[in-house]
Give the backbone structure.
Amino acid sequence: MKLGIDGLKLPEAKKRGPLASLEHAKALGLSGIFFSTLLDMSPDLDKGRLRDIRAKADELGLYLEGGLGKINPYCSAESPELRDIGNGDIIAGLTRMIEAGAEIGCCELWVSPGNFKPAYPGRLAVDRFRTDVTWDEQLLAMEKVLRKLAPVARANGVHMNIETHDEITSFEILRLIESVGEECVGVVLDTANMLQRGEHPVFAVRRLAPWVRQTHIKDAYIGRAPGGLDFQPRPCGMGIVDFAAILPLLAEVNPQLHLSLEIAQSSDDKRRAANPRQCIQIDDPLWRAGHPDLTGEELEAYFAMLNAYEKRVTAGEIPDWASYESANYGYPSYEHQHYGFAQALGFIEQSASHIRNICAEKGIVLTR
């Protein structure tokens, strides 16, 4: 395995550009970058530019990963670059990206099933609970897009890997893989996002592990709050995710999997708005009805995990939501204190150290 980083959250990634960002990752002691899409490497898919990035990664001994983008047609308007790169044809644009990725050896490509809108409260922050179209209709539309792209993915030896994103469940991802075909569809495992769907991370990883081909290694605080549960990104080891249980499950099925840290983005790169607290409305009847695959056994394990974590918070081992927000994000005075470059580097260092320690304890080999 190798430990790298999600390129979107690497500090100064846009300012430095892909080539200098690879050097930055190397200087931070990381072993690769997972660029969200091929367009983050080259907005016009310039072949020479992409080859240069591949060559730089190889020169530095770094892994290079990428992605395609959103596959949910109901949020295509929020990703106009996918239509632009196909000269008005989204499928043609995604096809170009698959072929461009394959040409530089990026054959594991991220896809996302929707958007997260932190400005909206509770369940309305995710496309799963849109009121103009049902989630089942969105899942069917995504399946149709994947089927349209499947022939070109197969022809190029590419997997379109669906992220365990904020709005989708592991059960639904497995059904999409079964429907379209595991030879061209896999999983990007975000280790914390399933918490927002009421899924226990260890249960979800047990379900998904054989199909996990890329990762976002992320931790989160979960705590009881008015209306449900608070969710807040944390450095690995400071959150609720049990990496000591998860990493061996992944290593067993894919010992060469790349572990890409996803950190809280520096506000020096993207100013952080004073959005509402991110609430998981897990006790709301509409929320519960929207998760028919969740079993009583898993929910019981989820709340047991939550109770154990809350004891650590109460004991002062872990800062609560407000304490951490105040120290790291400047809440409530966003205009005066931000999660800047230095804090982001500390987030990376703390997370990387935790993952490396777990791997050492479990006998999982991390190479650089």
Remarks:
- The first strand starts at residue 2 and ends at 6.
